[in-house]
């Protein structure tokens, strides 16, 4: 097995590749509309305490975790694949390497946009309906709505759909997109079923969580123009910051124009010898009558001034 091809794939590409951005096609619009209709139908069925609520209670009273206790230990770890914190860190690390390798911030920005939409949409419905979970239910057959809970829709399920589905959305080849779509679907279905097995969610919670996550993935092409503008803004700020670090050197300032700066001596001035001060002539030192009384200058000394 040759490893040079593997390391070549891990190295950074010389220039940004041309990646086809998904667009909001007619097929995607139809899927989005059908998923939205399914989402609304689940909410209405729970509000009306219909057959879906009866199914929730039947599964809850069946207690799957007691029917198959040998699976409990494994599924306690498997359900972590739906927790937002660990999964976001893992996927962000992978997409961060993708961003570095392909010279683009789109993978990280798409992940951030999808998680922001997930928190807003799912969180708003959770708090608005206030449904209690199976472990905190108070009345058999009741939908347990508007009771201060935050269980409907399932956050684990919706997060599994979005976090792992974003890998398929950002895939650069059709083959990779097909494989990642299958893997993310299996993980999302497994996480949702695991929450029902553990008794932490109703069946209707999981159904609505799958629909909520799928709606976000289907709506991401509408966010692509905003993602592109955000990427351009970040790159512009980076270029501006780099330009500040490579500023042009300062021009020389003429001497004497600033306070405390003195002009330098010229070459002609440097050639002129400077007479050093000498002590009094040893022949006349100490003699009071050496200088004439009338103050006339002394005659040149033959020793000091030959």
Describe this structure in words.
The protein is built from eleven helices and no strands. With 306 residues, the protein is mainly alpha-helical. The radius of gyration is 41 Å and the shape is elongated.
Number of DSSP strand runs: 0
Order of helices and strands: HHHHHHHHHHH
What is the SS-derived class?
A: mainly alpha
Instruction: Please estimate the helix content.
Output: 55-70%
N-C termini distance: 97 Å
Largest sheet: none
Shape: elongated
- Can you tell me the residue ranges where pLDDT is under 50 for at least 5 consecutive residues? none
Count of helical segments? 11
Strand content: under 5%
Mean pLDDT comes to 83
Radius of gyration: 41 Å
Summarize the structure.
The protein has eleven helices and no strands.
Features:
60% helix
Give me the secondary-structure topology:
Elements: H1 4-10, H2 26-47, H3 51-62, H4 64-67, H5 72-78, H6 84-102, H7 106-129, H8 155-169, H9 174-198, H10 203-245, H11 267-271
Helix pairs in contact: 2-10, 5-9, 6-7, 6-8, 7-8, 7-10, 8-9, 8-10, 9-10
